[in-house]
Amino acid sequence: MTIDASNSTNAVPTKTVVLGITGCIAAYKSAEIVRGLQKAGVRVKVVMTEHATHFVDPVTFRSLTHEKVAVGLFDDPSDPIHHISLAQEADVMLLAPCTANMLAKIANGIADDLLSTTVLATTAPLVIAPAMNVHMYENPATRYNIGKLQIRGVHFVEAGTGYLACGDIGKGRLADVEDIVSATLSMLGVKRDLAGKHVMITAGPTVEPIDPVRYITNRSSGKTGYAIARAAFARGADVTLISGPVALQAPEGVSMVYVQTADEMLAAAQEAFKSADIGIFAAAVADMKPARAADHKLKKGSDDDQLSGIELVENPDILETLAANKGSRVVVGFAAETDNVIENAQKKLISKHADVIVANQVGEGMAFGTDDNEVWFIDDEDTEGLPRMSKANLADAILSKSLEFLS
Ligand code: PMT
Q1: Ligand 1 lined by 281 (C-beta under 6 Å)
Q2: How confident is the model at residue 77 (pLDDT cuts 50, 70, 90)?
Q3: All domains in the chain, ordered by first residue
Q4: Could you give the CA distance from residue 281 to residue 119 in angstroms, rounded to a whole number?
Q5: Closest CA to ligand 1's atom 25
Q6: With 70 as the cut, is the pLDDT of residue 35 above it?
Q7: What percent of the chain has pLDDT over 70?
Q8: 94 CA to middle of ligand 1, Å?
Q9: Which residue from 218, 215, 261, 214 is spatially nearest to 242, judged by alpha carbons?
C-alpha cells in the first residue's frame, strides 16, 4: 500500500476568478488565496496595481497561476484591449486585499489603471476584501464608499480586528484567507457544504494475484470513485481516496492511498474510516481470491497442470465489516447488478448495514468504464430513480444524498 497526500492537478478548471491585488502589506496573503481557489478547481488570473508590485513580485503569481500577471494598461502588446478581455474572462472578480484608495475609485467609477478599468468593465459579480489601517477603515469616506458599493450589489468580506502592520490595534486586517476563498466560491455557485467533514471513498478494482504474472480483477475504471473524491473536495471536505489500480490521475487536494488487493483496501479503509464522517464504497472489490498466490508462474496442461484447479477463497467484505460498527458515520454502498437490480440492492442495504445504496445495472457496456451512469438511490424509506447523467453530476448527487443522513 502506498500513500500520497500530494496535490496533483487533474480536473480542467471551468470557472475563472480574476484576482485584483492592490498595494498593501497583506498582498502576500493573496498567494494563499490563489492556492485556495485553485484547490477548488478554479482558474485564477491576477491583475496587480503598480503599488502592489512593491510588496510582492508579480513572478510569485505568475509561478502560481501559470498565467501572465497584468499590471499596466499597455503592458501586453498581444492584447490591445487588455482590460476588456480580462473583464470578460472573469466569472467572479475578487479584490483582495483592496486598499481605501481602490475602494474610493471603484465607488466613484474612476478607471485610471488596469485594475480599476477592468473592474469598471466587468459584468461579473464583484467580491472585495478590504485591508487598511483602522482609522482609514473607519473613516466616514471609506464607510460611505463601502455602503455605496454594497447598495450596488458588491459582496464584502469584512476586515478582521487585531494587530495591524502599522502598529495600531483595531479593525482593518485582511479577512481570513479561508473566508475570502469561501465567499468567492459561493459567488461562483460552488457549494461548500462539506467543509470540516472527512469523506472516505473506495474506488476502482482490486487485483488478486494468482502467480507473478496472472491475477483476478474486474472492469472498474475508478471513474465513479474519483469523480466523487473530486466533488467532495470541491465542496470543502477532507478527502481520502483509497484506490485500486486505475489509469486516472489523482484528483487535486485529495489524500491518495493506493492499494492492490482487497485485504490492502480493507486495511486502508479501516484506518481512514476511524476519522471519517462519510464513507462511500464505490470500489468493485473482487469477491474471491486465490487461496495462495504462487511465487512462480503456474504451468498449464498435461501432468503438471497447476492452473485448472486454482483454489479460491472469499475476500473480506470491506463495506459490511466497516458499516457493522459505523456509529454516527454515514455509509453509502453500491450495488452492481445484472438482474433484479432494485430487489438485490434492497437486500444489500440491509445485509451491509448501509444508509443508502447506489444501485446500478452492469453488463453489456453499462456502468463499468463509462463516462455516465443511470442509478437508483435506495434507503429504508424510498427508492429513487435518477436520470442518466455524467459521473461528475452523479458524484454531486451522491454527496447531496449522503448529507441527508449526516446528523
Ligand atoms: O469504476 P467505474 O468504471 O466508474 O464503474 C463504476 C462501478 C460500476 C464500479 C460502480 O458504479 C459500482 O457499482 N461499484 C460497486 C461494484 C461492486 O463491487 O458492487 P457489489 O454489488 O459487488 O458490491 C456491493 C457493495 O459492497 C459495493 O459498495 C462494494 O464496494 C462493496 N464490497 C463488495 C465486496 C467486497 N468484498 N467488499 C466490499 O466492500
Answers
A1: yes
A2: confident
A3: 16-188 (3.40.50.1950), 198-288+312-403 (3.40.50.10300)
A4: 46
A5: 334
A6: yes
A7: 96
A8: 42
A9: 261
Q: Mean pLDDT, the chain, as a whole number?
A: 93
Among residues 284, 363, 273, 249, which one has the least CA distance to residue 321? Answer: 273
Catalytic amino acids? 166
Task: Say what the alpha-carbon torsion angle 226, 228, 234, 237 is, to the nearest 10 degrees.
Answer: -110
Cell triple for 71: 499590471
- Greater pLDDT, 368 or 84: 368
Express each pLDDT in 278-309 by its tens digit.
999 999 999 999 999 999 999 887 666 778 88
For the CA of 318, the nearest atom of ligand 1: 39
Radius of gyration of the chain (CA): 26
- Does residue 360's CB lie within 6 angstroms of at least one atom of ligand 1? yes
Nearest ligand 1 atom to alpha carbon 204 = 1
Report which ligand 1 atom has the smallest distance to the Cα of 219.
3
CA dist 373 → 18, 200, 205, 280, 404 (Å): 35, 21, 17, 17, 22
Identify the pLDDT of residue 189.
85
Q: How far is the CA of 335 from the centre of ligand 1 (A)?
A: 6
Tens digit of pLDDT for each residue in 195-238?
Answer: 899 999 999 999 999 999 999 999 999 999 999 999 998 888 99
Tell me if 262 CB under 6 Å of ligand 1.
Answer: yes
Backbone angles phi, psi at 189, to 5 degrees: 85, 15
User: CA 323 to CA 355: how far, in whole Å?
Assistant: 9
**Does the beta carbon of 368 sit less than 6 angstroms from any atom of ligand 1?**
yes
Q: What is the reported pLDDT for 5?
A: 43
Cα 256 to ligand 1 centre (Å): 19
Pocket perturbation via mutation, ligand 1, pick of 202, 219, 319, 371 by most ligand atoms within 8 A of CB = 319
Per-residue pLDDT tens over the stretch 323-366: 999 999 999 999 999 999 999 999 999 999 999 999 999 999 99
Ligand 1 in reach of 283 Cβ (< 6 A): yes
